[in-house]
């Protein structure tokens, strides 16, 4: 595999890359915040969140704020570690001559 060994296929899609980037610099973010920052549809965001949740890269927390349901997301330890490895692998790839 060599140079692309640590590039993680889960982060191939720009929306998943965006979700993880947001969650790396914020403790958490709710669905509407992610949707607003990434400028995507509900369905599109939901499917990418599911993919990250399936890999245990993000944690989903559902709660009520007043009477309104609110779902927030945060990166897990595993998710943060895998994302860092992915970014480092991309940086190495870019620096390779």
Question: Could you characterize what this model shows?
Answer:
This protein has 97 residues and is an alpha+beta fold. The chain has one domain: Arc Repressor Mutant, subunit A (Orthogonal Bundle). It contains four helices and three strands, in the order H-E-H-H-E-E-H. The protein has helices spanning 14-25, 31-38, 42-54, 77-95, and strands at residues 29-30, 58-65, 68-75. Strands 1-3-2 form a three-stranded antiparallel sheet. Strand 2 and strand 3 form a beta hairpin.
Short summary of the structure?
The protein has four helices and three strands. It is of the alpha+beta class and 97 residues long.
Radius of gyration: 15 Å
> What is the spatial order of strands in the main beta sheet?
1-3-2
Order of helices and strands: HEHHEEH
Strand content: 15-25%
- What is the helix content? 40-55%
Total DSSP E strands: 3
How many structural domains? 1
Low-confidence stretches: none
Average the pLDDT over all residues and give the rounded result: 93
Structural class by helix and strand composition: alpha+beta
What is the third-level CATH name, the topology? Arc Repressor Mutant, subunit A
Q: What do we call the CATH homologous superfamily?
A: Winged helix-like DNA-binding domain superfamily/Winged helix DNA-binding domain
- Based on Cα principal axes, name the global outline: elongated
Provide the CATH architecture.
Orthogonal Bundle
Tell me the distance between the termini: 17 Å
CATH class placement: Mainly Alpha
Largest sheet: 3 strands, antiparallel
Count of DSSP H/I helices: 4
